[in-house]
Specification:
By secondary structure, the chain is α/β, with parallel strands linked by helices. The chain has two domains: 5-176, Rossmann fold (3-Layer(aba) Sandwich), CATH 3.40.50.620; 189-279, Pantoate--beta-alanine Ligase, Chain: A,domain 2 (2-Layer Sandwich), CATH 3.30.1300.10. It contains ten helices and eight strands. The strands form two sheets. Strands 3-2-1-4-5 form a five-stranded parallel beta sheet, with helices on both faces. Strands 6-7-8 form a three-stranded antiparallel beta sheet, covered by helices on one side. α2 (33-45) packs across α3 (73-84), α6 (127-142) packs across α7 (154-166) and α9 (204-217) runs antiparallel to α10. The longest helix is centred in the middle third of the chain and has 16 residues, at 127-142. It starts with a helix and ends with a strand. Adenosine monophosphate binds at residues 27-28, 34-35, 37-38, 149-150, 152-153, 176, 178-179, 186-189.
Length: 284
């Protein structure tokens, strides 16, 4: 297990000297099959994979769940050992302390533009600045060739693609599909916060996305009609409180009045204090 940026750098340098490419999978730990799917994809495409586990304080607002965010390092390492290492890949883990990432005097952050001001950015104003800063630090510290992110956090991938392009970061971004529970709920480290009743109700998220897809495929192009149907479906869950239902351009995330050939439908819904995200990328 690597804990310092200096050790992470020399690890990557040694891998590069050995002719191996390095894939980076940034996580906040509390690993589940969604995270492991990113590790597997990285192992498939790269000679070595670095999984970072860091609960990044900068991306949580003071009223959010930084303190109670699940920290399950021992179990995470076991899961990676059991599942993450394929015969053609070697998985290394980077687990820095907060002081390693943000030493005394740290005073810089990455300002992200319009793409980070809609949707999640509206509900969590400082979130993407925190994500962008830590992700760019991880890119520079790891010197990875490719980084793997989940579609589950669709807007996050858009923001990171924007930073990488705008700042000419020499690294490829790969977006991996959403891994779901058998009933359709997108896997998330935060699902464990749900009560049994909320967990049952949370299935409406993926069901409402399926409904949207069915409507679009059967010729409903009007976004307002789809948005209304999705909203009504989610509202059948007694504890669901909708933060947003957006039908947006897959690259800019600006709302689309009508869907022609492609759109992403993005949801954020609260169940009690737990905020869940889901999305569906629709292509005709
Ligand atoms: P997190 O630990 O929640 O910051 O997530 C780390 C990475 O795993 C991010 O790129 C997430 O988008 C990705 N991820 C989280 N949940 C899933 C999921 N259900 N399927 C695929 N990727 C996921």
């Amino acid at each position: 297990m690597l804990t310092t940026i200096a050790d992470l750098r020399s690890f990557t340098a040694s891998q590069h000297r050995a002719g191996k490419t390095v894939g980076l999978v940034p996580t906040m730990g509390a690993l589940h099959s969604g995270h492991l799917s990113l590790v597997r994809e990285s192992n498939k495409r790269c000679g070595t994979t670095v999984v970072s586990i860091f609960v990044n304080p900068a991306q949580f607002a003071p009223n959010e769940d930084f303190q109670r965010y699940p920290r399950t390092l021992e179990n995470d390492l076991l899961l990676l050992q059991k599942d993450g290492c394929t015969p053609n890949g070697k998985t290394e883990v980077f687990v820095p302390e907060i002081s390693e990432m943000y030493p005394r005097g740290f005073d810089t952050s990455v300002h992200t533009g319009s793409i980070s001001q809609v949707l999640e950015g509206r509900s969590r104003p400082a979130h993407f600045q925190g994500v962008a800063t830590v992700v760019l630090k991880l890119f520079l510290a790891s010197q990875a060739d490719t980084a793997f992110f989940g579609q589950k956090d669709y807007q996050q991938v858009c923001v990171i693609r924007r930073i990488t392009a705008d700042l000419n970061v020499p690294l490829e971004i790969v977006m991996c599909p959403i891994i779901r529970e058998p009933d359709g709920l997108a896997m998330s480290s935060r699902n464990r916060y749900l009560t049994a009743a909320q967990r049952q109700q949370a299935v409406v998220l993926s069901q409402s996305l399926q409904l949207a897809e069915t409507m679009l495929r059967s010729g409903t192009a009007d976004s307002a009609a789809v948005q209304k149907a999705v909203t009504e479906k989610i509202q059948t869950a007694p504890e669901a409180v909708i933060d947003y239902v957006s039908i947006a351009d897959p690259i800019t995330l600006q709302e689309l009045p009508a869907v022609e050939s492609e759109a992403v439908i993005l949801l954020a819904v609260r169940f009690g204090t737990t905020r869940l995200l889901d999305n569906l990328h629709y292509v005709l």
